[in-house]
Design goal:
Number of domains: 1
Shape: globular
Largest sheet: 12 strands, antiparallel
CATH architecture: Sandwich
Distance between the termini: 15 Å
Number of strands: 12
Radius of gyration: 15 Å
Length: 183
């Protein structure tokens, strides 16, 4: 507990995003199965299309607009996907394998806080994963979809293992949490 990991997200080369000069993601382990994940977007925030802040609730299809994502490797080939919107809405899913066996992840309720200025956007998420996993000794992927004011999108992640953006690709789960970390 108490471990803090900060990583830069990399824009996929098939996309452009002139308003954004960089995105950093910080993961803080705050408990046995608890995380604080903070995404910080640097640049001209007025050049981005951001959803209006709404009542925090679970909502599907958040990835179709500006959205921040966390993927967590589960046992076997399964994984969880979390979407966090600057609107404060969120979604949580479980998969049995690569893009298959998708269903809602029950028992998880992230708390999303947002702060925006002219030069930065911060989306901070408190997430307790105890209903899904026994510990944080696993790999995660951190990513973002950024929509510009003109409607074009860019895709950001720790790594991009293929010629198309694909955050579900197991190689995108590039950050090791917990005691097994070699960082």
């Amino acid at each position: 507990m108490g471990r803090v990991l900060t990583q830069a997200l990399i824009r996929h080369p098939v996309s452009a995003c002139p308003p954004v000069t960089g995105i950093e993601a910080t993961v803080s382990i705050t408990g046995p199965c608890e995380l604080l994940v903070e995404y910080v977007v640097h640049g001209d925030i007025a050049g981005l299309k951001l959803p209006t802040v709404a009542m925090p609730e679970r909502r599907d299809n958040l990835w179709q607009a500006t959205c921040f994502e966390l993927f967590v490797a589960l046992d076997g080939r399964g994984y969880a996907e979390f979407n966090f919107s600057p609107s404060t809405c969120w979604a949580a899913y479980r998969f049995d394998d690569y893009r298959s066996g998708m269903r809602d992840a029950n028992g998880v309720r992230p708390v999303v806080d947002v702060m925006a200025t002219d030069r930065g956007l911060t989306v901070a998420v408190d997430l307790d994963l105890a209903a899904m996993i026994p510990d944080l000794h696993r790999r995660v992927g951190l990513s973002a979809v950024i929509e510009q004011a003109n409607g074009s999108k860019s895709w950001w992640a720790l790594v991009h293992p293929s010629d198309k953006p694909d955050f579900h690709h197991r190689d995108c789960f590039a950050l090791q949490l917990g005691a097994a970390s070699s960082l």
